[in-house]
Amino acid sequence: PRKIIIDTDPGQDDAAALLLALSSPADLEVVAITTVAGNVPLSLTTRNARVVCEVAGRREVKVYAGCDRPLKRQLVTAEHVHGKTGLDGFEVDEPTMPVEAAHAVDFLIETLRAAEPGEITLCTLGALTNIATALEKAPDIAPRIRELVMMGGGFFEGGNITPAAEFNIYVDPDAAEIVFKSGIPIVMMPLDVTHRVLTLKRRVDRFRAMGTRVGDAMAGWLDFFERFDVEKYGSDGGPLHDPTVIAYLLRPELFSGRACNVEIETLSPLTVGMTVVDWWQVTGRPHNAHVMREIDAEGFFELLTERLARF
Ligand code: BDR
Ligand code: CA
């Protein structure tokens, strides 16, 4: 199996991504989950990561807490999307599995240094604060990372927290800039992809029909998450952003895109956090990311449903 570290701010869609990864041990080995502040403050994202592990019956997964605020800015959160806990929609007991003692940034540095070069893939589902902090402290880790697959940004689709910016990049644009300049091979799942995978009722019903705790949790979380987006997206479902990252590792043929240059706006008050994607190759700036644009939405939901039914 391919070794991955998932850096996340759960979040119902992050939860779907974690479950998809944990459902597929023959393909993916989840070395650890690292948490970051984003959708809600760090204490809650760290709680929620453990909630998901416990729902999955995987209390042995290692969870490391990371940065509690962006590099240079005040934290912006999204309770309006994810609810007060960040993971509203399904009743759970408070998690009892441990949080590892080390800071996520130190864990990332030590693990990448100890692994063979190219052994570890990073999957990022939130702001890039932990990764950027690790790169600043230990620039030698960059060439050791096999690939960084992120949910973040948007180009033809625009933004979701401002007209120009997608939430994960907006929360910490300075961190995103460091990551995009790092030379790590990046695969980017922007809103252009994630807005194509909507949690339609017929899709969520299939999770509920599993009659399992994971199926019930997924249905409850997605019903809650959807409530926010129904009016906005004019459909009976909201976009299921983060599991596209894991789906890409399992079934890359579901996606298509192209290699581009991507730069991050960090200065303009109007467009801060914008991912400036040179899709038409008009600048001659070097390619630094593989930017996805298309997804086979039915294939994606088939994969997610089939894998979650394994719990
Ligand atoms: C991203 O923002 C978060 O609210 C979601 O979990 C996802 O990672 C979408 O813009
Ligand atoms: Ca997220």
From TrEMBL:
Residues spanning the signal sequence: none
Q: Which GO terms describe its molecular function?
A: purine nucleosidase activity
Q: Where is the Inosine/uridine-preferring nucleoside hydrolase domain?
A: 4-302
Q: Which domain of life is it from?
A: Bacteria
What's in the keyword line of the UniProt record?
Glycosidase, Hydrolase
GO BP, sorted A to Z? purine nucleoside catabolic process
Q: Which Gene3D superfamilies match?
A: Ribonucleoside hydrolase-like
Q: Does the keyword Cell inner membrane apply?
A: no
Q: Which SUPFAM superfamilies match?
A: Nucleoside hydrolase (SSF53590)
One GO CC annotation:
cytosol
Q: What is this protein called?
A: Nucleoside hydrolase
Q: Which organism is it from?
A: Xaviernesmea oryzae
